[in-house]
Specification:
The chain has 189 residues and is of the alpha/beta class. It has one domain: Spore Coat Polysaccharide Biosynthesis Protein SpsA, Chain A (Alpha-Beta Complex), CATH 3.90.550.10. It has seven helices and nine strands, in the order βββαβαβαβαββααβα. The strands form two sheets. The chain has a seven-stranded mixed beta sheet with strand order 5-4-1-6-8-7-9, sandwiched between helices. It is globular and about 40 Å long.
Length: 189
């Protein structure tokens, strides 16, 4: 079984507020990723990890079937969110990891990465050779991922494990929204 974790716990300091609630095409940014995940039959269970302003986000975003997990230690960085999401998923063969601020992710890009999952090796989407998300962790790496600390996420763990890179730049827009300018670029015709 494949589970998924959407990381959306940050406070949006570079954005100037809760970017999860910023609107793109009339819909909260976070909801774009959740709609995409809900459309994937290969993902049987998914969680969204909230932290800063969790109650406000939960009240204003349709979770589309995602289980909400709150990372109380979200301020520690991305590793805290990842740990909270992984701990919520048990008995999975692999975990798909997505960012809640990557609204251009498509089912086709996710499926292209998942098509290479054999249960033994980590996978990472790349866009014109540059690393991005989604990432897939096999069950064997989850215990190590649960030990991560800080704001670096699983980059070093992936590299040490011999991650396989899957080019998906032709299948979606990889931009993650970090600033209002990023959102403006996506909202521009």
């Amino acid at each position: 079984m494949i589970g998924a974790v959407v990381l959306a716990a940050g406070e949006g300091s570079r954005f100037g507020g809760p970017k999860q609630l910023a609107e793109l095409d009339g819909q909260p940014l976070l909801e774009h990723v959740l709609v995409t995940l809900a459309a994937l039959p290969a993902v049987e269970r998914f969680v969204v990890v909230l932290g800063a302003r969790a109650d406000e986000i939960r009240a204003r975003v349709d979770m589309h079937g995602a289980e909400v997990v709150v990372a109380d230690d979200w301020a520690e960085g991305q590793a805290a969110s990842l740990r909270a999401g992984l701990a919520a998923l048990d008995d999975v063969d692999g975990v798909l990891i997505l960012l809640g601020d990557q609204p251009g992710i498509t089912p086709a890009a996710i499926e292209a990465v998942l098509a290479h999952f054999d249960g033994t090796r980590a996978l990472r989407a790349v866009y014109d050779g540059l690393p991005g998300h989604p990432v897939v962790l096999p069950r064997v790496l989850i215990p190590q991922a649960l030990e991560l600390r800080g704001n670096e996420g699983a980059r070093e763990l992936l590299e040490a494990s011999g991650v396989r890179r899957i080019e998906v730049g032709h299948l979606c827009e990889p931009i993650d929204v970090d600033t209002p300018a990023d959102l403006d670029r996506l909202n521009s015709p």
